[in-house]
Specification:
This protein has about 80 residues and is an all-alpha fold. The protein has a single domain (about 25-80), classed as Up-down Bundle (F1FO ATP Synthase). The chain has 4 helices and no strands. The chain has helices at about 1-10, 15-20, 25-50, 55-80. Helix 3 (about 25-50) packs antiparallel against helix 4 (about 55-80). It is elongated, with a radius of gyration of 21 Å.
Length: about 80
């Protein structure tokens, strides 16, 4: 804890830098989360179609719905931020 206090004492502009960010970190985290979510949905959908090609239509529909829900997180974080 002493090391952290010494670091903060030696870097007085750190709080100004954090204030300049303006709390928009949640938008970036939501974008990363949505990207990971869409990637996982696509990977698992491709895996499911590979296992059962006859169910491609249903898997595609469900994959599109879940990808849209994952992308919706970005818009929610932008509008609430």
């Amino acid at each position: 804890m002493d090391i952290l206090m010494q670091f903060l004492a030696n870097v007085p502009y750190l709080f100004e830098l954090l204030a300049a960010i303006e709390g928009k970190i949640h938008v970036g985290l939501a974008a990363v989360g949505a990207g990971v979510g869409v990637g996982l949905v696509g990977a698992k959908a491709a895996e499911a179609v590979g296992r059962n090609p006859g169910a491609q239509g249903g898997i595609l529909t469900i994959g599109i719905i879940f990808a849209a829900l994952a992308e919706g997180l970005i818009f929610i974080s932008i509008f609430l931020g």
